[in-house]
Design brief:
The protein is an alpha+beta fold and about 230 residues long. The chain has helices spanning about 20-25, 50-55, 120, 165, 190-205, 210-225; strands at about 5-15, 30-35, 40-45, 65-70, 75-85, 90-100, 105-115, 125-130, 135-140, 145-150, 160, 175, 180-185. The protein is built from 6 helices and 13 strands.
Length: about 230
Amino acid sequence: METKDLHNLTLDKRIIDGKNVKKLRRSGFIPANIFGLNSESESVQIESSVLTETLKKVQKSTPILIQKKGDSDNVVCFIEEIQRHPITEEVLHISFKKVDTKKPIKLSIYTSITGEAPGVKNLGGILLQPMNYLSIKTLPLEVPSSIVIDISSLEEIGNSISVKDIAEKYNCEFLDEPSSTIVRIVPPRIEEEAEEEVDDELEGEEGMETDEEGITESEDSSENQDTTE
């Protein structure tokens, strides 16, 4: 990937700071900061509509080419942190980290699943994905957009795909243990769950009188839980 292929973002220098950033948001801008490469943090701002569209196209693992208005220099950055409103989830602040494109960086990449596992379709197995993200080390412009895991080779119960199985497919160094399991097929638990339900019913009949008192306690405790927040 070259810098010309990156998503471009233009930021304005921010003149409103501190408690006054609420006015900035009401005027349609989101406060932001750029830092990294041993430079001081710079206060900038971005139009909220532009940021909303940008976040639909990029992730934290996506390199972005940023330019400040009035500045001819471009810099490659990654999204470092996004602060959102706890209720509305609107973006309150975003920070970008500058990187040297000639030096490797470490970051986490989302793993996506593709294909259909015969062990699930034909044998009724259950697909588990213990690892949704993988840690990698690579040059900023060589970061893969995602790590795609093809599960069509998982034909039997117990089959799995580990980090070592996909390492050679990507131009990066995987930092997780090679033996770490990304996805695996496990046997269905239908019969086991049915046996547990029968056992629960038998235990309920044997201790019916004490169970009735326990219901009141659980109802009281659930009411207390509802009022904690």
